[in-house]
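Q: How would the structure tokens look for this protein?
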Amino acid sequence: MVSNESAPAPASRRTGSGPFHRLSAAIGRQAMPIRIVLGLGIAAVGVVFLLVSMSVQTVALVAGIGILLIGIALLLTSGDTAGEEQDGGHAASVVGRVLGGLLALLGAGMALWPAAGAPLLSALIGIALVGFAVATAARAVRPGADQRTTALIAAAATLAVAAITVFWPVLTLVVFRLGVGAWFVFVGLQLIVRAFVRRRSGRPSTSRRPWQRWLRTIGATVSLVLAVAVAAGSGSLLGGTPLPVPDAFYTPPAEVPSKPGTLIRSEPLTVGVPDGAKAWRILYTTTHPDGSPAISSGTILAPADPGPDPRPLLTVAHGTVGVVPGCAPSLSDAPFADGAGTAMADMVTEHGWIAVTSDYIGLGTTGPHPYLVGDAEARNVWDASRAALGFPGLKVSTDTVIWGHSQGGQGSLWTGQIAGSYAPEFTVKGVAAFAPASDLYGLAEAIKTETAGKTVSAYIAATWDRVFPDLEVSSHLTPGSAGPVQRISGLCFNGKDGLAAILRGSQVPNQVFPDALMDGPFGDTLKEQEPTGPFPAPVLVAQGLADPLVKPALQHAWVQARCAAGVPIDYRTYPGLGHVELVGPDSPLTPQLEKWTLDRWAGAPATPDCAHLPE
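A: Here is the predicted structure in token form.
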């Protein structure tokens, strides 16, 4: 007799009989030891992160292993709770397994190819964090999930940390490894704890005491607030400050004089002018690196009462301030603070000199700015001095002493070097260069992996692509450098933007210029920017021995080479002084520079010391 009652469904129909379901069942029976083993492994990776000093590649390798283990944990434990699918959590289990598989693949990629490049590796960490946050949120919204609000807050905090990795890719791999290590330890311990608090039925316990629930919620909320604050602060810090916008003064007239060094217009400066002096910004004609007509701006600083007689001329080449129009010194709140600003103010207010400084093309006016292109900078500087000769109300001598710091140090040497051919109407009495970028190729090689070097390289990459289009610099940058180069090029190197520019440089993951580019025409062009002389007057080179940017060893080698070529150099070194401190108001160079300049004007004998250079 056949019964009308339906027979119970076979087990294969209730739970499935395929290999995947049998594997899931086997994993479910071993859920506790699997969680403990994976948790211990992930926590161990975190401990390695916290305690072991590692290179970027090693960080990538260890991070890959940790993310691989987290992916495996998600892959194997999603849906391992008995009855989860009957409770409607099948979709969440599928999401967990998919994300777990994705994390496992990403982690394996990082572990197997740690040298694939820091940009990719830091991006993978960000992707992994996003994946973990999504998985956490998916588990939180499934039916029967414990403390959903807390889990969702934790997921949001993880997304904020992922945003931080975008702002700080190198710190993510090197410095932030401490935070990543702590995160691995937390995830590992969480897996272990969950293994022990599960009920015999396989469901996580929902009977935690109220204070435990509140403690977890408060902890997740604090984490979210801190992560969001750091992410928002990072964006603000690295974004720099709004740059001044050049006004109509910097716009050339419809008809521009063809003769270089012609004064187009001027207007008084009232901000940042030293006591006992008066100043103007000027607009004048000059030439582009290719010799075509151009417009540049600059400044003139004169004694408050210059008198009727011609005043000695101080021709100044300023240091690196940036490469976009808003970075022009004449637009700054402190237009005369660059380089040896204290000494320049003393020369004007105490000794009656007139100082003229070119902004260079592309700073204030339209570009491109010929950053560290020696001959072009020198022509900008000479044309500013020519404009000063025609400045109404001032009488300026054609005898001059040339100064320059850093980029301007290279510029001052080049200004002296081309004086006879480009500006024969001037008589150069002396050339002073403070921490000059004298050997640009050697400098680029020496600091290519350092923070300041990457920032300077970014400025070169952003400008030389337009100054020397045949080099096609932008298409040959190292992977991951193009974006940072673009962002750094919009930041000034002075004032409030200086920190943002340096921090951006610290987050360029690789050297900007690959070695292959340095070995080709680009490297040859770098070498062509070295000022080798001869110089028409005594030369002073000052170098701080604690300079992290212009390496003292490189400067020493350049001076030795000039001395060997018969070019006399007065070389002075300053122990303990860095790149900026060398020209600071308290630097011993300041009074020495003033005396040296006055001696040159008075025709005192030069003091070269090629025979007594330090070894």
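The longest helix spans residues 210-238.

Residues 1-16, 81-88, 199-207 have pLDDT under 50 and may be disordered.

Upvote if useful.
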